[in-house]
Structure formats: C-alpha cells, structure tokens
Amino acid sequence: xxxLRNHVGTDIWIGRTDHAERRSSFRYxxxxxxxxxxxxxxxxxTNTCAIIGFECEExxxxxxxxxxxxxxxxxxxxxLASIPWRTTEGHRLVDAGNVxxxxxxxxxxxxxxxxxxxDLLSKSATPVILGGGHETLYGHYLGVRKHIGPNAxxxxxxxxxxxxxxxxxxxxxxxxxxxxxxxxxSNSSYFVLGIxxxxxxxxxxxxxxxxxxxxxLEEEMHLGQMDHIMSSLYAFMxxxxxxxxxxxxxxxxxxxxxxxxxxxxxGLTPMVVRDLIRTVATHxxxxxxDICEVNPALDENGRTIKLxxxxxxxxxxxxxxxxxxxxxx
Length: 329
Ligand SMILES: N=CN[C@@H](CCC(=O)O)C(=O)O
Ligand SMILES: [Mn+2]
Ligand SMILES: [Mn+2]
Fold this sequence. Notes:
The chain is an alpha/beta fold. It has helices spanning 28-31, 58-62, 72-80, 106-122, 136-148, 177-184, 202-210, 226-238, 270-282, 303-321, and strands spanning 3-5, 33-34, 48-55, 92-100, 126-131, 154-159, 188-195, 214-217, 242-248, 286-292.
C-alpha cells in the first residue's frame, strides 16, 4: 500500500507570528490542526478544508519528466504557513498528513490517496490535495468517484498546458490520467483550460477530440476573452452533478513558474489562473481541489512554490467563502 503518514513534522507549519492570541493577526500556521485519517471521528462542519499531501513523482518518472515533485507537499505547506488566514471563526483547516509513493508502486499509492479523499469527503471536509506529479489527479479522482457513486455525473476541470491523454496500456503515468478516466468511466467528462498548441502532438489533439474533451487553448485565454470562457466554464459545471478541480502548475508562464517539469514559455499569467480557481471553487458543486507539478528541485528562489501556495490559498478561501453563511454554526 502507498504509505500513509498522518502527521507532518513539527518543523513544517512554522511562520511569522504577529500576535499569539488575536485572531485577526493569524496566519495559516496558527490555525491549522492535525487530524487522524481513517479514524472514526465526528463529521466536520461544512466549513472545513482538509489538506492532504501526495509525495509522489513515479508518474513523472514513467513519463520521462524531470524529478522533484515529491518534495512539493511539504514545501507548499511551508509557504502556506505564513499566509494570513482571513476567514471568520467557524472555518477550520485540518492537515491529514501525506500519502507517500514508494518502490515505484504508483497504482497502490493512488488507491491509498483515493481512500483518504473518500474518508475526508464522507466527513464533510473539502479535500485540498498537495501533489506530487499530475498522477496525483488519478488518486484524487478515485476518491471522488467512490464518494459520489458510479451513477452521478462528474465534471473534471483541469487547468493545464497538456491533455495528459497518452496511451496507458503499458503503464499509467503523469501523462495518461484523463484517458484512463474517460475510457473507464462513461459518467465523467473532461474540460481542460490553458492547452499549449505546441505542447501537445497532433495525435493528442485527435485523441482529445475522439474522447469528447472540451478544451480552450492558452492563446484564446487573454484579456477580453475571459467573460466568454467563464460562461463556458459555468455552463460545464451546471451540466454535472459534481465537479472536481485540478491545477497542473506547468500551465503558468515559465517566467512565473520555472519550477515545473515541463515549463510553458507562453503559459497563462497567475492572475488568469487565480480567476479560474475562484470561479470553480466558489461553485457549490465543486467537491475538491488539487495542485500538482510544483517541483522544488527546479525552482528559482522559491518562486513557483510561493505561487503554488498562493493559488492553493485562493482555492481554500473560495471554498470557505461559499460557506460564509454557515460559519460558526
Ligand atoms: N504531465 C504531462 N506532461 C507532458 C510533458 C510534455 C513535455 O515533456 O514536453 C505530457 O506528457 O505531454
Ligand atoms: Mn501539464
Ligand atoms: Mn498535467
């Protein structure tokens, strides 16, 4: 089994403290609570986000990518630690620890992550998954599908430069997940935003068309075009019973996000990605979020890690914001 480590080291959630008791000066490290996964426990209020890390780069290795993404979950936690926590008192953030992939056992680790995600959803927490290579998404998907059952329609929204729809008959990797899902699950649909025209072969565009993928190219996603894109995104979410969101950090321009395996010289700006995350995570059908492909080993001065943490914060704040009315109940 993929190893489940319930508690991250005490040296991870450390940051600046402006005041030890005054909540209005709190940052993430002052409010995050450790939690036991898979242990019987009372259900959370709907105002709870649950972080879980996936220390895995086996999918990237199999896809001939550059290694380092397994170090991202704790690096992202460290960067989140000092971000101001700006929600009301009823909102909680728990940390369920890390699932670690060892001995190249990717499929087992994805299953372990899936079980953790199902557990969190069954306790009414909103999972926020810190990958890992983009193979993290497949474990995330397994957990969501198990929670909602086989018959519910699931809309999967991916913000990515790549389709990740390569053949998986030899082995799944970080380049195969959406083909695995669409070929195995007729109640799932796929919408990907930020595709690079020259980051994918013609064959991958053909497979995307064959499998009914909705996609928007990066070059169609700039100022003046966003209203139309947000409307398409909203329409896609409305068509499904549930939605899940995944961010492949290589969709962002390489100047802002150099710390990824396959960087994008023409990638999106962080502000566009922030708007997409806000739109999707605010929607009531969205169950969960993952961030993948941050690679600390390739980063420059922590720039990609910090951006990844800020985008994760956007997802968490959007999830919390939609539950504002329930806060404190
Ligand atoms: N996770 C996806 N990775 C891309 C890598 C592309 C590249 O190396 O240029 C893919 O498989 O298509
Ligand atoms: Mn990608
Ligand atoms: Mn990807």
